[in-house]
Amino acid sequence: MNDTDVLTVTPAVNPGKRLLVLGGGYTGQRFARAAAARGFAVSLTSRRPPAMATGALHWLQFDSDSGSGGAAAALEEITHVLVTGAPNGSQGDPFLPLLGAMLQRQPLEWVGYLSTTGVYGDSGGAWLDETAPTRPLSERSQRRLDAEHAWQALGLPLQILRLPAIYGPHRCPFDSLRQGSCRLVHKPAQVFARVHVDDIVGAALHCLLALAPPDRPTVLNVCDDCPCPSTESLSFAAHLLGLKLPSVQRYADIEADLTPMARSFWVENRRTSNRLLHNLGYRLLYPSYREGFRASLAEETAQASDQVSGTACSGPSS
Ligand SMILES: NC(=O)c1ccc[n+]([C@@H]2O[C@H](COP(=O)([O-])OP(=O)(O)OC[C@H]3O[C@@H](n4cnc5c(N)ncnc54)[C@H](OP(=O)(O)O)[C@@H]3O)[C@@H](O)[C@H]2O)c1
Fold first, then answer.
1. Ligand 1: nearest atom to the Cα of 44
2. Alpha carbons 252 and 273: distance in angstroms, whole number
3. Using one digit for the tens of pLDDT, what is the confidence trace for 189-228?
């Protein structure tokens, strides 16, 4: 599925709804375009917004280091917010200190907060759902849990969407396979969970358009049906490209070479359940990396040919 398909799933039905996307990055931009196609007036922020307008999207400058820029003014009568920026080490959440009090004065119907399944910590590969205790292992995940709590403390109509690794067009292992920089690493019993970016968009839109407010869970895992070893998903990506896989390396042999950030992903092993998402009536666009990688490659290929023919539009890099 490409962006155009996402935009045409449901008709535009929301005149008068005003969405602010705090962080128009990878997921934020796709959510913004999908919401605009459903009749939302959409503003989105970036530290470096594009100089030129991009379609129906209204870009605002916002940087937690230098001030709120145009984002504070855009809060007037805002009805929906999606928060996509991660907390950082020194400041915590980038948006709350400057915008939190103003958000509390808006007629908000829905606030989506993109978090991570890292807040659960390690389950030794066992399945866990939204009722599982949060036991973050890394400082990064502890900061994320703190940010979840800070957003909850505002008393807004908040939904926390906990995400595993996000993939989609331009976020698949295709380039690293083509360049020969991809590592095929095996760690016994280790799995990784994933979600296609358009299922984050689809699940969030499902919550805010198809569910009544009392039916929207405060915490929702948004992930696909198929946590699996990275050797499995990489093998499929190589198959799609018709490329040979690199030799398999044992995790124990390469662990010492990894950056602390890379190692932090390998020391956590969990299968996050999406049963609640299914029970809410959301049908995944991409139940596994197989459909998702195939669609992502098709979209990348289509964009490359648009660029050759000069029809592609641009936003800030994400
Ligand atoms: N990538 C993954 O695999 C993954 C997995 C689980 C959860 N997540 C989380 O899911 C969320 C969305 O991910 P994504 O990949 O779509 O994120 P992304 O592309 O990195 O976009 C993040 C957005 O937040 C903005 N932002 C970040 N720090 C900011 C600051 N200090 N001041 C102002 N704006 C700031 C960025 O602004 P600019 O436009 O200026 O860059 C960008 O627009 C993030 O919170 C991410 O941590 C990601």
1. 43
2. 28
3. 999 999 999 999 999 999 999 999 999 999 999 999 999 9
Going by CA atoms, what residue is nearest to atom 46 of ligand 1?
86
Q: Whose CA is nearest to atom 18 of ligand 1?
A: 25
d(C-alpha 147, C-alpha 67), whole Å = 19
Token pair of 291 as six digits? 């459909």
The correct answer on CATH 3.40.50.2300 for the domain covering 3-170+194-227+270-305 is no
Q: Cα(187) to centroid of ligand 1, in Å? A: 29
Pocket of ligand 1 (CB under 6 A): 23-28, 46-48, 62-64, 84-86, 88, 94, 114, 116, 163, 165-166, 316, 318
pLDDT in tens, 281-292: 999 999 999 999
